[in-house]
Structure formats: structure tokens, C-alpha cells
Amino acid sequence: MPTNAHPHASISGVGLALKRPLIAPLLAANGDPSLAKLSFLEIAPENWLGVGGLPTKQLASLSERYPLVGHGLCLSLGGLTPLNTDFLRQVKAFLLQHRIGLYTEHLSYSSDGYQAGQGYLYDLLPLPFTEQAVRHLAQRIRQTQDILGQRIAVENVSYYVQAPISDMDELSFIKAVLDEADCLLHLDLNNLYVNSVNFGFDASAFLADLPTERIVYAHMAGHYQQAPDLLIDTHGSAVIDPVWALLAAAYQRFGTVPTCLERDTNIPPLAVVMQEIDKIADMQRQAIKAA
Predict the structure, then answer these.
(1) Is the whole-model pTM more than 0.85?
(2) Residue 287: which residues within 8 A CB-CB, separation 6 or more?
(3) How many domains does the chain have?
(4) What is the CATH number of the domain that holds 139?
(5) What is the pLDDT of residues 62-118, one digit of tens each?
């Protein structure tokens, strides 16, 4: 059974998803006051398992300065193959080694049905919004939590085609999974906005109906507008005003949960990235003052 009911308690403030191009600038800027509002770093454990040499030394150096959050990419919680329990035990050891209190994954699948540990599709694919999928996901989340010995947070994902057999909407699906699995929610504001445009629903109403007690972590990112009614979640551009507005509304409703900025492609200089980090920190300070 999970033993850590509130794994987010060790982090707060604003974080940055750690990508390789950002490592050297972060190390070089040690002690620079321009980084004062950066509170933690987010990493994908699978990108670091079994890695040695200079990258491991760099991560160790950064982890001495910043708490780390683990954000998984390939567990395939919604997949049909058995959970890769060997991988999960490696993740558990990694989390303990680096004192990582919060681990999150995605409400999606990323495997093609072959045996565990093989057949990864390198994408986060949406699930049908059905009662059967709720039960399937919840069982695998509970299994994951039992192995890790702590609750995990699951992230709402962006998607572009909804399965025709769905018998509920995304909001109802997410709430049902959270209740059935007794897990936490990693709220991605950009994914919420992208889906609201692509599928024509009210993002603010969606946000207002999420269970406050489950939300422990948030993501902010940019996207690509392919058409007025088609947004692609790329993490390759600046955050836009409607997503900033959703973050402000989330802070007002849920409090200033730890919030991480993602920038995966077209990564600008660290000073430019820090402008958005600073903006999130300022929004948190304003929300706390207004509370």
C-alpha cells in the first residue's frame, strides 16, 4: 500500500523540465541571482537509468542545488501488456537514490501490445473514455503505487482523435480514474487548453469541476496552432495568454501547487526560459497575497 500520501510536500514554487541543452547553462549559472525563482527540476527517470559518466555527475551536481521531480514517459499505464515491474523497481531505486518525493505519469498508453518492455511507440496515445478503461487504468495505477510505496500523480494528456466507443467525456473519465485508483492529479494546463480548442469544450468549466484535493502538481507549456480549431501540443513555443489565464484560475481555485515549465524543442537561451519561470513565480506570489 502507498505510504506517502502527500509526495509533493517536499517541493514548492516553480520548476523547469530538465533537457540536455539546459544542463550546461544551469551549471554555469550556479549562484546567479537570475535563477532565484527556480525552485526545482523535473526529470524523466527512464532518460537517466543506466547512464554514467559526465551526465550522471552533472545530474548529481544539479540535484544538490534543486529538488527533483520524476515525470515518467513510458510506463504505458493504459497499455494491454503487463506492467513492466522490473522497470518500476528500477524507478523506485532511482527515486530513493535522488530523494525524489513526487513521481507522475500519463493517462495514456505508449506500447503496442507486445511483451512488457518492448514495442514502445514513443508517443502518448489517448484511451477510450469508458468504464472498462477506468477499471483497467485504476488497477495498473494501484499496482504501480504498491510497487513504489507511494501515491503517484497522473497527468491529463492532449489528444486529437477521440475513440468512437467512448461513453463519457474526458472530465468524467479523469475523475473516475482518480477515485477508483485513489491517486493524485498532475494538471497540465496547456493540454487542457489544447483539448478544449480541438474538441470545443469550455476549459474554465472543466477546470472548475476538478477535485481540489487531488491536484498536487501542474505543467505549463506552449503549443503549435495548425488551424483555428487544431492545436498541437509541441512544448516548442512560449506559453500563450489563454493558458496563463487558466493557470491564474487554477491558483485561485486549487492554491499555488508546484508548477513546472516544459520546453522540449526550439529551446531558447536560459535567460529567455527564465522569463516564463519568473512569471509563474510572480503569479504564485500574487495568488498567495490575494488568498
Answers:
(1) yes
(2) 248, 251, 252, 255, 256
(3) 1
(4) 3.20.20.150
(5) 999 999 999 998 898 988 888 999 999 999 999 999 999 999 999 986 655 544 444
